[in-house]
Amino acid sequence: MKNKYILILFFLCFSVISCNDFKEQKFKNLTNTDISQLLWIPSFLWENEEIKNQVFNIYECHDLDTNQSWGYFSITNLNLIIGNATLIDKYTCTNRERKRLKKIGCNFDFLKTFTKKGNQFSYNLLYDESSGIIYYYGYYNKSNTHK
Distance (Å, rounded) from C-alpha 118 to C-alpha 129? Predict the structure, then answer.
């Protein structure tokens, strides 16, 4: 009987630990960052030098179990980001997404929403016109091997 309780306790502890494996980072800008620091930041923010030099106030958090990534950033020239993104009428998200975005300051009432997709990623961008902050939520494809 004692072994059964130990086994149940082990599984409970393991499930709690594995479900919340988050990592987060903050940067003032991306100009002096190493590629290893950028792997979970959406690649469209750092692959192009012009964009990379204009991005600032970056916060990134990701879930190692699901490959989901969320955060926010600001950029000097907004058109560099949304110029080739697709405007969507309404962003519908799961309760988990909404909770994560609200926790980092996203107000869903006053946003323009865009979607941006590439070979290795898919992101929804939520632009807060009043603050100039762009919140994002998305994922890297399973073929991507971020650690």
Answer: 25
Q: Is 61 helix (H, G, I), strand (E, B) or coil?
A: strand
For residue range 48-73, list pLDDT tens digits in order. Answer: 999 999 999 999 999 888 888 999 99
> What number of other Cβ atoms are within 10 A of residue 4's Cβ?
8
Contact (Cβ atoms closer than 8 angstroms) between residue 9 and residue 45: no
Question: Among 129, 71, 127, which Cα is nearest to 100's?
Answer: 71
134, 81 Cβ separation under 8 angstroms: yes
| Phi and psi angles of residue 69, each rounded to the nearest 5 degrees, phi first | -140, 140
Pairing of the two strands 68-75 and 86-88: unpaired
The pLDDT tens digits of the residues spanning 114-144 come to 887 776 678 888 899 888 999 999 886 644 4
- pLDDT 10s digits, 93-114: 889 898 999 999 998 776 788 8
Q: What angle do CA 125, 128, 132 make, to 5 degrees?
A: 105
